[in-house]
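Chapter review: from sequence to fold.
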Amino acid sequence: MLEAVRVALDPTPRQERLLESHAGAARFAYNAGLAHVKDMLERQEKPEWSYYALRRWWNQAKGTLAVNAVTGETWWRKNSKEAYNAGLKSLADALSNWSKSRKGLRKGRRVGFPRFKSKDRATPRFAYTTGSFGLIDYDPYALRLPKIGRVHCMENVSKRVDGAKILRMSVSRHAGRWMASLTVERKDGPMPTPLKGGSVGIDLGVKQLATLSDGTIIRNPRALDSNLRRLRREQKNLSRKRKGSNRRRKARTRVARLHARVADLRRDLLDKTTTMLAHAYADISIEDLNVAGMVRNHRLARSVEDAAFAEFRRLLTYKTARAGARLHVIDRWYPSSKTCSSCGTVKAKLSLSERVYHCGKCGLVIDRDLNAAINIQVAGSAPETLNARGGDVRQTGSSRTMPAPVKREPSGGESRVRLGAGLGNEAMQMTSL
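The token string follows.
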């Protein structure tokens, strides 16, 4: 199994300059390779943009490209060859994604043609895949970076790796801090024993981040909204600075650090919440939310993205697999909010402003989110059945397709046959046998 270990670096001023030089080398190789590909396309030649083809071209052309225009000195030897390879690998992946997107072979939004990376805007990054990089024997708080040397880390990186094989090390700078991300390969261990905890349904929301079927409420910290006033002030100050000045550079650093703080606050809560859920419950059921459709509502878009529903599910997926819990994903067409958790009556309409669910048949009065969480728990424990909404969503007597609800998204074919439990973390658990 592959894992990522991310640690903060503590480089000296000299090492920071070397890190920036390596990141600039990766950016230079990327831009040079992109210019080479565009030149061949303009001449109507068939370019070879695979990673190995770009590496062959770079090895032939680096003696004339990586030259100081003033002194005539060839400077590519000052940086590790892995920095240039990292830039070419990034370019090859970008061109491959663009080509597959044009042919309809890539899922998601259409990918545009790669653009040149700017020194002012691009994130400084490079990577090592070969060579003597990684841990240092008897020095647990350091990493070895070729051409840079021993770089001190802010934590015990040897303990984090824990004897795993390091395949790749990516170095990047975010908000003024250099980070190293290690891709490690661990041996597949025995399957974790199933937990003895009960089952729970989770209803994600904007007002409260999560409401559990047992009545537990996890508040939404609103990391962006709570820092929005400071962010607006810093961005206004940034807009007033002259481009290219040192004051503008410092103002951009303050804005970047504030964005990093927002991301850290959000990630901290998501990590703690998903870890607690994965170790406290044996069966966890969650909805398959259509986040892309929800952000189309301009009144809710910022709040939905601030809550990070997709990241919540991603973290919960691999943490439940590690802990031995089972994750059930409920079909997005299941009306969890409109269904009465007592008698099963489904309302025809339920506006977002109705925060308390009133059942007209059995008289149940319950919090809207708690009612949905209970229904999600029941649907997750039920066997897979045919979806009653499996047909096309069309108005009677009309050929016009109705728009998808905010929490759902119509899907065609085999993916629309589930009423309740779908694939959660079963695939991850099977691959670790």
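Two observations follow directly from the output. The CA atoms of residues 234 and 255 lie 6 Å apart. The longest helix spans residues 246-280.
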